[in-house]
Amino acid sequence: MIGIVWATAAGRESAERLAQAWPGECTVHSGPVKQQVQQAWQHSEAIVAFLATGATVRLIAPLLTAKQSDPGVVCVDEASRFAVALLGGHAKNANALADRVSDVLGTQPVVTTGTDAANIPGLDQLGFTPANPERLAAVSRAILDGEPVDWQADMTWPLPPMPPNVGGNPDAAHRVVVTDRDSSGSSAVVLHPPSLVLGIGSSKGVSEAEVAALVEQVLTAHGLAPESVCAVATADIKAAEPGIVAFAASRRLPVIAYTADELAAMDVPNPSEVVRAAVGTPSVSEASALLAARTMGRKAELVAAKTASAMATVAVARLTPWGRLAIVGLGPGAADLRTPRATAELRAAGIVVGLDQYVDQIRHVLRPGVRIVESGLGAEEERARTAVELAREGNAVALIGSGDAGVYAMASPALEFATDDVDVVAVPGVTAALAASSLLGAPLGHDHVYLSLSDLHTPWEVIERRLHAAAETDLVVCLYNPRSLKRQHQLPEALRILGKCRPPTTPAGLVHAASRPGERIHVTTLAELNPDDVDMNTVVIIGASTTRNISGRMVTPRGYQWMPS
User: Fold this and answer.
1) pLDDT at residue 133, rounded to an integer
2) Are 61 and 140 contained in the same domain?
3) Same structural domain for residues 526 and 421?
């Protein structure tokens, strides 16, 4: 719950705007300001205070207890110009809350956390649990200061990049170790990743205390860190067992349940006919731990075979994390036409793969230390294979393309190579056709078709058939890859085919370098369109019979019969 406190009429108005934008998430407090802050502090995960930062500091100072338990606090000034992440920037997501406030109120988010300001991922923002959080500040400061920091991990995780001073530096004074093993007493900053799954079986009526004691015994015996446990798995007939449910709830772990048939299909080292007779599968703890780990990761191994107490059994499986492949459409070129989601994926990628000229567009967005794999024109298949292989190794990879990555771009070849051991996310982008259409007017206002005139991968005979079909069905035609130095005849032939079914006065539009430096826009007709004005960076749009030139703009009506109200 987000508590909202205010002192003036302007603050009250802005508070109500937030509450309307976030229904069910907010409590707008009222009464004396000090009382509002105290109530919000007791009952909220985060607070938005429409107060001066100085006043807010004085009000919350007596309430502060610990970084991990205090609510995050964002201050918004009287004129709603700034949203200042005052407290709990990382630990309580106040930095993200400042961004959310700004999305609603149009304020400028103010974030002063060092790593955020330096465009470096915070060690407490990687999704890992620090075993010794009191040491994070010193190592983070060393990273910011450019000092050598050693980084060791048991396996590859899909992480954003660390700056160049972080890596294999065994002689460094500062060390970070990413491991799911118990590292008590280590002088390094130890980060425990979510890589362990508990498989739990039990008799009816097992207590939470017995389950907890057995889990602790197993983890300790195998040197495993409790902080790396990310789920509890069991048979579906045990999923509501109070002792198991209470154990999982007390540790905020999800419970994953499987049928007896699903568990029976798993190959385990210690099957039991007694268990089969009781629940229909020869294994619950080992089978469920392995099955859950394989579902949550790209592969799994049993790291602790089942151990039994009087009424429970526990086994532990380790998952190997999915690599992540983000296929990102950058849009037509202008920075303000690149989506926020695309920018977020670029910042999260440890490796970026793309055409060199597209990499140049977004190089300034990338975090320090990112690995860039770039190549020239004509290497699409190589780029796609490289991106998939790097993601398969466990990395966070962004494969970039212009426009929308799924439209004449990199998504298709990448997904041809990607198997089910890679986590794939596609980020849509503004296409060249959409950018060109917006500049020409509204030529795509009714049914339309995209056709590429490039015969490098599609035989010209196939392209010709598609042009004839588009012409005969009176579709607006958007031509990609219309002309290059080596492909001169395709565009004149396409115009000839379309001209068989359309009058010479049919509106046509050319847009060169849409949204980029050198942008040129030209509205003409089918008869007057000059192929010499067209190159590979030009989008050509040929109207349908209904398309009109209205005040110099191409418009294809929707065809509605507007009815009086």
Assistant:
1) 87
2) no
3) no
Average pLDDT rounded to a whole number, residues 355-360: 94
Q: What is the helix, strand, coil percentage profile of the chain, to 5? A: 35, 25, 40
For residues 201 and 95, give the distance between their C-alpha atoms in angstroms, rounded to a whole number: 42
* Lowest mean per-residue pLDDT among 185-189, 226-230, 235-239: 185-189
Helix, strand or coil, per DSSP, at residue 314 = strand
| Residue listed under structure tokens 């989506």 | 339
3-state SS of 135-157 is HHHHHHHHHHHCCCEEEEECCCC
Angle between helices 53-60 and 33-43 in degrees, nearest 10:
60
Query: In the sheet where 507-512 sits, what is the strand order?
Result: 448-452, 476-480, 538-542, 507-512, 520-525
CATH code of the domain covering residue 25: 3.40.50.11220
CATH of the domain at 389: 3.40.1010.10
Spatial contact of 384 and 337, defined as CB atoms under 8 Å apart: no
pTM of the model: 0.86
Same domain, 525 and 538: yes
Q: Report the number of distinct structural domains present in the chain.
A: 5
pLDDT band for position 250 (cuts 50, 70, 90) = very high
Range(s) of the domain holding residue 276 = 196-320
- Take residue 411 and report the two structure tokens written for it: 């998504």
Helices (H), 376-422: 380-392, 411-417
Among candidate residues 287, 292, 216, 285, the one with its CA nearest the CA of residue 254: 292
Nearest to 74 by CA among 124, 23, 109, 30: 109
Q: Which residue has the tokens 């918004």?
A: 76
Rounded distance between C-alpha atoms, residue 555 and residue 550, angstroms? 7
pLDDT band of 235, cuts 50, 70, 90: very high
Tell me the average pLDDT across 213-232: 98
pLDDT tens for residues 524-550? 999 999 999 999 899 999 999 999 999
Which two structure tokens, joined as six digits, stand for 531? Answer: 């192929």
